Amino acid sequence: MVRRYELANGKIVESQNELSPILVYVNPSDIEKKYLTEELKLDEHTLNSSLDPDELSRLEFEPEHVALIFKRPKNYAACDNFLFRVSSLGLFLFKERLIVLMAEDIPLFEGKPFMRGPSLPKIMLSLIYRSIFHFIEHLKIINMLSDSLETKINASMENKYLLNLFILEKSLVYFLNAINSNAMVIEKIKNNSAKIGIDSDTQEFLDDLLIENNQCYKQADIYSNILSGLMDARASIVGNNLNVLMKTLNIITITIMMPTLVVSIFSMNVRFPLQHHPLAFVLVLSLAVVSAISFLFFWKHKKW
């Protein structure tokens, strides 16, 4: 599927013009891939890399265009079960055209960076900025989920919530790798800004972009270290909760055994005092209750 956009009054609007300067391909078909490789001279390997979620970010200079692949967080769904993934997005910057390739359909041209009369190089940088912004938003969600799981772990004896934390930690590893990969590409863009066609005004935006990405990386690193450092403690909490449950069950079991022992003794087929007394049943039952209460007081006194 292909969408066409053009610049109108300093804004990016969708267009039906075949010659629109911005083309967005979402999971392109074989026919569209053939058009991109044969007519627009895109490298086939780079094109496929743009749709590969495991591809690292990189910047390449072709004779007629600049090819950029960078990482962005994949949209999270409930079926992902706490696993946050990353995907790749390809940008191919020509002198008068920008081609965007992505595997899933997402809103692209939203936010203030796209409303200030952007040039094509600045649109390319603005897309990277939105990727960084999405990473930050996903990190906030991961932090909220982590806090929620911690609360559940404190009162749970199951490993389910602990495994969910492991999955979140795995997601942060993916994020750290993707953000660090983007950082190297942004640095390379900065070193080759004149070759790409970035003017002095856009250069300041590029510097801000590098700072934002570094802050995003540090935030992800902090969350990862916190989850990793406290994982053993949370596992111990689950084990301790299980020990508390076993202790409670032992108290209940022994408390029930004490009156059972008393009743069993008086149920033997031998002569016992009071066996012909009219209140023998009540006395034996009272003795059983007293034995249970006495054990509970003894347990509490020992602070077991």
**Second CATH tier, the architecture of the largest domain:** 2-Layer Sandwich
Gap between N and C termini, in Å?
69 Å
Strand content: 5-15%
- The CATH superfamily name of the largest domain is CorA soluble domain-like
Low-confidence blocks of residues: none
Approximate shape:
rod-shaped
The CATH top-level class label of the largest domain: Alpha Beta
Structurally, how many domains make up the residues? 2
Mean pLDDT, rounded to whole units? Answer: 82
For the secondary structure, the number of strands is 7
Physical arrangement of strands within the biggest beta sheet: 2-1-3-7-6-5-4
- Element pattern in H and E: EEEHHEEEEHHHHH
Helix content: 55-70%
Radius of gyration: 33 Å
- CATH third-level topology of the largest domain: Beta Polymerase, domain 2
Which structural class matches the secondary elements? Answer: alpha+beta
- How would you sum up the major sheet? 7 strands, mixed
Counting H and I runs of at least 4 residues, what is the number of helices?
Answer: 7
